[in-house]
Specification:
Blueprint: H1 2-74, E1 80-82, E2 88-91, H2 93-99, H3 107-110, H4 121-128
Antiparallel strand pairs: 1-2
Length: 132
């Protein structure tokens, strides 16, 4: 009987060491998970702050855009903005009154032409990408 107990004792010691190793591994893993969770929480807070700032900036930009177009629309001079393909993207009230609503027409079409005006200053602007 003593021989049986003596043979089992090392087995119990091995099991006890294994349990301790598992407990230490679990504790380490839990600490790593807690640290990573905190990192992710902080990253989420930072992203939320950046998102809030971006939304604020977008709202401010949109407000400025509306203010600019309102100003352009009220000017007594003919004002239109066109894209590099010559389509009119915006025409103010004075322009629309004189030439009608451009609705995607090219600038030269709005002026009753069939091709780009050779004396058009916007050709220089579009080539050099600098304002005149």
């Amino acid at each position: 009987m003593l021989l049986g107990v003596a043979g089992i004792t090392p087995l119990f010691q091995t099991i006890k060491r294994s349990e301790e190793t598992l407990r230490q591994a679990r504790d380490l893993l839990e600490a790593q998970i807690a640290a990573r969770t905190e990192e992710l929480r902080q990253a989420n807070v930072q992203l939320q702050e950046e998102l809030t700032e971006r939304r604020r900036a977008e709202a401010a930009t949109e407000a400025e855009r509306r203010r600019l177009y309102t100003l352009l629309d009220e000017l007594p001079a003919l004002v239109y903005l066109k894209a590099p393909d010559y389509t009119i993207r915006f025409a103010n009230r004075a322009f629309r009154k004189a030439y009608g609503a451009p609705e995607g027409r090219r600038c030269y079409e709005a002026f009753g032409r069939t091709e780009i005006c050779q004396q058009c200053a916007s050709l220089k602007v579009l080539e050099s990408m600098t304002p005149l």
